[in-house]
């Protein structure tokens, strides 16, 4: 999956090297529905702006417009009256699709009812985005200049009636969206969900997803036909591929049992369209191994997700194969070789190879007959090609010489895969040089033409799909992953050493879990190099040579048929072509492919671990003592003083058994039983009698509060007679609480509470229901660390891993559908419905819309009486099949089984055994073992909580939570760095440098020779002598004799010992530290300017480049050596007339000997985007940006200079004084930037905002726009928002 982009780039190598940059409206725009919405909004907003002459309505159309306007108002009024709510889920979804932040009501309502709306002119957060702000080269603060020449000032009035005139129509048309909902007294009101319909904000794709009868998560997979059923033949092929893949992933052998299980799962996914939870709950018998006793599943639930991912990859393979087959049937039906390769393809890599081959064959035919050279054609179109020189070779006609080499590439590749030699090249009587002279008698450099012909043959071999497959397979079977020693001087305890000097078979490299992600990390940090070798390289090269040459005469035929010089020379060039095809063209590509495959494999493993770790945290029952009822929820006290210190009081909150905060206390000090605070705490314990008391602070100071609270609770418990009433003191993990505390979610839920109070509230709720508290965070959960390697995952993969954990656990627990409908403002409950099998955010919202209906009544509380009513009225068949068994119908359902995990499909079977215990031997023989287990369990105890019991944290776990130190990072005998915090007469107060935990070092553990020289802030080495984890005390020593006995932490991993290349490690020479060169030492002579082979490269200075480009059209560029460092590359780019941008630097990574350009490229300070080739940088960065520049320059509101734009705006305003005029001009002082200027009234000073051209579109301040129309509409709304806010 990760290689798709690389393969697409490669596929396009000959697809159309001259393709113009993609139009930004297609490449960057959102869905059609979004464009439609934006267009409608733009029309409304534009009412207050100058309309171009060709857009103005004629005089006689005014009457028609007025009628339409009235009709539209009536339509909107009707839509508002009958429309449905926007819930928090809907608002989140709208924001996700539009990138626009929707203003939320700050009030929290328990129930919804339409109330009185009052007009509000406050438009909030219209263009808020989560994108990082791009920093300009100069400070842009206060750059915006308003009509009076100064920025808006709070409290100052600016033309109070101006915007009533400018935006008179906007406020009228959109007043329904800007109005706040007031809460009338004594009765509940309707939420924002029912104020206006969300349909206008949903994309066309969203609308399709919510009504299509397929699981939502299946529909979100791009680039495939989601409702296409795979055929039996396709499932058989997918089974073969995926079974091998999953066996390799786990390091096991392929078996018939494994293959059968994989096939059954694939059939369920691809023909029945059922999700992982359904298979795991109701179809586990299809993946069970009945040859074992007891019966066990062959696959785990994680394996089901793995198969789902690869089923998606296989679908992409099938659709690409069908597309290629259609193209081949149309254009290459007579080419049997192409048809053969297609029929044998089993992997998507083979299809990409075939696609490249087909495009090359087509290119050969067109270029050889065209009049102008490829170079000239590219220059005319302002484009580049990765393989320009080969196109030039073909245009020269060198293909005629290539044919004379006599190499039949398909036969050559067939020979490589055969034990006998099948390929026999035909020799020419003339030598290679004579053949060149025959075709090009006037050439002064026939040797160069011969070399170019050999290179063209090498390239033809490199694009052959079967040759690529042969080389790729050899790397998989015989390749070695090799890592170097450190490229920089690093400390001996640096973790990087664990990944140095590796020489590991590639097949084993796929089974090193997620550690390859670390290798990639250190490679990107330039600490190590990665390379690949072949164990059979000599044999492999010999095979290439033997099969590419023509056979020499046998020894007894030499007298009659001596070897001619032409025979030897032709073979020499054939060998050179084969070696070049492998070493210089294919090898780098295959090594990049291997890195991508290994990286994807590591990410798959990390995703699984993140999923497992979140599951372990949320698949937990509420805290319960042995005396509590089976389904009881505990009463909880939670105490904290945050970061500690005199400024922080001790906060205590009480959460009752319904999860509600009913009481809160705050005490300056909590120590003495007889103090006022102590008495209040004891009274609270006696009054509310909590089952559990949670203690946690922001840092290690938890230990102080913990001991105090334990003393109070012990005193309280001693007075109680019943064991069941006694409270338990625990320390809880606070990762969720820390994220919740300052979040918007918490502020909305408890707007008047302090952060410390919210922190305690979250701690308490975590003990009551870990699942719901994690769900409460929403996307904030991404900030929590679930695995040490999660930072190496792309965010979308990390989020998907966590979502899968929620899907697994939420479906295990089930969702009470009526509870969801009656508790609309409980966000965790509403979010839980998203994760039900078959559902997602869109389908959850749609279901609630259908149930509530359009005619909403204030006190209407819908009730679903049965699962059958869901099926008959609200859910489509496939969604119902997926979800029915996980939706609880409570209380008192018409059908008792509706409040069980038993699916309606198995009700008859369940009723059969409702009174009799099923015979498990019969179940085994009928291969329904797991299904009958489920029925047996649910008949006895429907929807019993199957989560793990809440486990009291161990002493080690509490110590780790409080100190942030693990058993590997802190133990006796380890030398650790400490920072001196304070110096007292009794001891040094220090903190552990790595974790911040504070402790004391007595003067008796410090060398007397140095104790007088110690100052605050010094870093010392200290030996850990002992640890008391119950009391959180650590004994440290800085005495030399103690330090001699200790050791520093080692990151050596014994797992990797077998991978170490001992010889390489022995011969390793550490790099020398760079020393500052004395000025008196003569400096080395400067290197000659850099030279590369590229049609746009010229060895010129920046000024000379500007002179050359002055006669060229806008958008042209020259690659040149950097002025102050000729060994590096720069680019001079003509933005506009007399406006040139000089790239500060092109950063090159992996510039190895023999390469003209580095393997990885970055543009100056914009190092977020990586390019794999110079041509990719030129096309992706410059060509795409040129397109946006051209569109702005050609826009009728563009003027070349500030003065000309100011005059234009004045003219517009004189003709239309009630409107706002705007336009653009190029910012000559900042190449690559433009100015958006606007005026409210004639004679006012033009207000200005600077924007930037970027490959993805246009940017003004922190706002991104995908095209010019978006910028125009968005800026109108932004100006309106800013003005109304400042008013």
TrEMBL record:
It holds the Pfam family SH2_2. Residues 973-1039 form the S1 motif domain. One of its GO terms (biological process) is nucleosome organization. Residues 1-10 have a biased composition (Basic and acidic residues). PANTHER family: TRANSCRIPTION ELONGATION FACTOR SPT6. It comes from the Eukaryota. Residues 12-38, 52-63, 84-93 have a biased composition (Acidic residues). PROSITE patterns: S1. One of its GO terms (molecular function) is nucleosome binding. Residues 1-93 are annotated as: Disordered. The lineage of its organism: Eukaryota, Fungi, Fungi incertae sedis, Mucoromycota, Glomeromycotina. GO terms for cellular component: transcription elongation factor complex. Residues 67-80 have a biased composition (Basic residues). This is SH2 domain-containing protein.
């Amino acid at each position: 999956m990760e290689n798709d982009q690389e393969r697409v780039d490669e596929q396009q190598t000959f697809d159309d090297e001259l393709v113009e940059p993609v139009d930004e409206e297609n490449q960057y725009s959102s869905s059609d529905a979004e464009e439609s919405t934006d267009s409608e909004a733009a029309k409304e907003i534009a009412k207050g702006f100058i309309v171009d002459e060709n857009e103005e309505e004629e005089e006689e159309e005014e009457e028609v417009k007025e009628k339409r306007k009235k009709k539209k108002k009536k339509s909107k009024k009707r839509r508002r009256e009958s429309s449905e709510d926007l819930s928090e889920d809907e608002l989140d979804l709208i924001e996700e699709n539009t990138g626009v932040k929707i203003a939320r009501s700050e009030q929290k309502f328990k129930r919804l009812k339409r109330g009185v709306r009052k007009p509000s002119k406050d438009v909030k957060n219209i263009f808020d985005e989560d994108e990082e702000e791009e920093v300009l080269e100069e400070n842009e603060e206060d750059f915006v200049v308003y009509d009076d020449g100064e920025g808006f000032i709070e409290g100052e009035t600016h033309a109070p009636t101006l915007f009533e005139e400018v935006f008179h129509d906007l406020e009228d048309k959109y007043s329904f969206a800007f109005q706040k909902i007031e809460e009338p007294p004594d009765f509940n009101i309707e939420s924002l969900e029912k104020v206006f319909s969300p349909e206008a904000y949903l994309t066309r794709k969203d609308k399709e997803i919510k009504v299509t009868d397929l699981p939502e998560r299946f529909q979100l997979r791009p680039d495939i036909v989601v409702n296409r059923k795979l055929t039996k033949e396709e499932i058989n092929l997918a089974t073969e591929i995926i079974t091998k893949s999953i066996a390799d992933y786990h390091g096991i052998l392929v078996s018939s049992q494994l293959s059968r299980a994989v096939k059954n799962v694939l059939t369920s996914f691809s023909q029945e369209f059922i999700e992982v939870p359904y298979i795991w709950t109701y179809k586990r018998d299809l993946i069970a191994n009945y040859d074992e006793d007891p019966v066990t599943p062959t696959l785990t639930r994680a394996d089901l997700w793995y198969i789902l991912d690869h089923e998606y990859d296989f679908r992409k393979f099938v659709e690409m194969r069908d597309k290629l087959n259609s193209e081949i049937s149309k254009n290459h039906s007579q080419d049997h070789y192409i048809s053969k390769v297609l029929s044998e393809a089993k992997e998507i890599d083979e299809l990409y190879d075939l696609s490249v081959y087909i495009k090359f064959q087509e290119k050969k035919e067109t270029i050889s007959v065209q009049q102008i050279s490829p170079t000239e054609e590219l220059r005319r179109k302002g484009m580049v090609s990765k393989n320009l020189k080969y196109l030039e070779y073909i245009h020269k006609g060198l293909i005629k010489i290539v044919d004379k080499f006599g190499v039949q590439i398909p036969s050559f590749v067939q020979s490589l895969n055969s034990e006998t030699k099948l390929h026999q090249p035909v020799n020419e009587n003339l030598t290679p040089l004579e053949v060149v002279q025959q075709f090009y008698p006037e050439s002064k450099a026939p040797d160069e033409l011969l070399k170019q012909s050999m290179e063209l043959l090498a390239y033809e071999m490199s694009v052959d799909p079967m040759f690529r497959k042969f080389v790729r397979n050899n790397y998989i079977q015989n390749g070695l992953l090799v890592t170097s020693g450190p490229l920089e001087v690093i400390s001996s305890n640096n973790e990087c050493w664990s990944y140095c000097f590796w020489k590991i078979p590639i097949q084993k490299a796929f089974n090193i879990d997620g550690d390859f992600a670390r290798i990639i990390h250190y490679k990107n940090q330039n600490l190590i190099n990665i390379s690949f070798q072949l164990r059979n390289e000599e044999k492999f090269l010999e095979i290439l040579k033997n099969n590419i040459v023509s056979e020499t005469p046998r020894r007894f035929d030499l007298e009659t048929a001596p070897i001619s010089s032409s025979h030897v020379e032709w073979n020499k060039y054939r060998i050179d072509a084969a070696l070049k095809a492998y070493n210089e063209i294919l090898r780098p590509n295959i090594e990049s492919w291997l890195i991508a495959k290994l990286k994807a494999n590591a990410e798959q493993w990390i995703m699984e671990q993140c999923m497992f770790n979140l599951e372990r945290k949320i698949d937990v029952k509420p805290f319960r003592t042995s005396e509590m009822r089976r389904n009881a929820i505990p009463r909880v006290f939670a105490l904290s003083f945050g970061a500690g210190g005199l400024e922080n009081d001790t906060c205590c909150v009480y959460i009752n058994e319904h999860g509600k905060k009913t009481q809160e206390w705050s005490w300056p000090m909590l120590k003495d039983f007889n103090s006022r605070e102590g008495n209040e705490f004891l009274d609270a314990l006696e009054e509310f009698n909590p089952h559990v008391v949670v203690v946690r602070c922001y840092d290690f100071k938890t230990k102080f509060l913990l001991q105090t609270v334990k003393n109070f609770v012990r005193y309280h418990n001693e007075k109680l007679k019943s064991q069941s009433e006694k409270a338990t003191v625990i320390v809880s993990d606070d990762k969720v609480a820390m994220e919740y505390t300052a979040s918007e979610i918490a502020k909305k839920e408890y707007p008047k509470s302090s952060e410390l109070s919210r922190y305690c509230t979250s701690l308490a709720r975590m003990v009551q229901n870990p699942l719901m508290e994690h769900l409460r965070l929403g996307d904030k959960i991404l900030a929590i660390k679930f695995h040490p390697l999660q930072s190496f995952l792309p965010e979308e993969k990390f989020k998907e891993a966590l979502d899968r954990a929620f899907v697994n656990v939420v479906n295990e627990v089930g969702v009470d559908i009526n509870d969801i409908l009656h508790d609309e403002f409980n966000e965790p409950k509403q979010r839980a419905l998203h994760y039900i099998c078959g559902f997602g955010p869109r389908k959850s919202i749609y279901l609630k819309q259908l149930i509530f209906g359009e005619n909403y009544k204030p006190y209407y509380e819908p009730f679903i009486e049965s699962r059958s009513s869901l099926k008959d009225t609200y859910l489509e068949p496939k969604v119902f099949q997926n979800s029915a068994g996980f939706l609880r119908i409570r209380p008192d359902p018409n059908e008792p089984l509706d409040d069980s995990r038993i699916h309606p499909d198995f009700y008859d079977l369940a009723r059969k055994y409702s009174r009799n215990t099923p015979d498990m031997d019969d179940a085994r023989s009928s291969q329904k073992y797991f299904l009958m287990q489920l029925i047996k369990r649910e008949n006895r105890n429907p929807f019993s909580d199957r989560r793990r019991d809440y486990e009291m944290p161990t002493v080690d776990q509490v110590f780790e939570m409080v100190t942030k130190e693990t058993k590997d990072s802190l133990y006796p005998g380890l030398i650790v760095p400490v920072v001196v915090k304070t110096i007292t007469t009794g001891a040094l107060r220090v903190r552990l440098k790595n974790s911040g935990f504070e402790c004391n070092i007595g003067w008796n553990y410090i060398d007397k020779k140095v104790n007088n020289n110690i100052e605050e802030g010094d870093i010392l080495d200290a030996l850990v002598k002992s640890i008391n984890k119950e009391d959180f005390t650590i004994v440290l020593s800085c005495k030399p004799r103690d330090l001699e006995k200790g050791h520093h932490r080692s990151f050596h991993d014994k797992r990797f010992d077998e991978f170490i290349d001992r010889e390489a490690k022995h011969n390793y020479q550490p790099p020398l530290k760079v020393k500052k060169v004395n000025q008196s030492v003569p400096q080395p002579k400067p290197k000659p300017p850099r030279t590369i082979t590229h049609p746009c490269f010229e060895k010129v200075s920046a000024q000379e480049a500007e002179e050359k480009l002055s006669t060229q059209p806008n958008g042209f560029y020259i690659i040149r050596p950097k002025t102050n460092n000729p060994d590096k590359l720069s680019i001079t780019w003509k933005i506009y007339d007399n406006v040139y941008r000089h790239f500060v630097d092109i950063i090159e990574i992996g510039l190895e000997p023999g390469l003209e350009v580095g393997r990885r490229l970055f543009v100056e300070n914009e190092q977020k985007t990586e390019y794999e080739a110079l041509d990719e940088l030129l096309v992706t960065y410059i060509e795409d940006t040129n397109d946006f520049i051209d569109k702005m320059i050609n826009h009728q509101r563009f003027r070349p200079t500030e003065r000309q734009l100011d005059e234009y705006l004045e003219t517009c305003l004189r003709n239309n004084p009630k409107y706002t005029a705007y336009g653009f001009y190029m910012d000559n002082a900042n190449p690559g930037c433009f100015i958006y200027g606007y005026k409210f009234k004639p004679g006012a000073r033009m207000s200005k905002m600077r924007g930037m051209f970027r490959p993805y579109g246009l940017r003004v301040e922190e706002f991104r726009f995908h095209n010019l129309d978006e910028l125009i509409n968005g800026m109108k709304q932004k100006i309106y928002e800013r003005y109304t806010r400042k008013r």
